[in-house]
Design goal:
147 residues, mainly alpha, single chain
Length: 147
Amino acid sequence: MKKQQISLKNKALDFLSRRDYGYHELYVKLQKYCEDLEEIKQVLDDLKRKNFLSEKRYINSYLRSKQVKYGIRKIRYDLLQKNVDADVLEEVLASNQANEYEAAYTIWQRKFGVVATENKERLRQMRFLQSRGFSSDVITKIIKNKN
């Protein structure tokens, strides 16, 4: 049994060596290799204590990778679907709110480039940014060209 725990720990470290994972995401991934759920929890808690597994680092990594394409609202929704710690998520997202306008503006610039003169086109641009998860304040600021 001790040998299986070591190999389970090695498997978890192997996954973590490639990218960061959230606690729940790695828990689900390790269930394919071990049926003893308590043993998986022990391994993950040990990795968390040793700071090999960090929710905050995982959220920051996910945020950096997705922020070039999506807004904070969509990223929050996606991460909550992955069962990350909600308190840690809100803490990380609060510190990254300032970057949302730049990300939205870059995405809008790449897709449209010019402010719409017709109401129909303006609404289309707003829907696009909204579908990407940007807040209405940011969308309004971009569409009305209030840099």
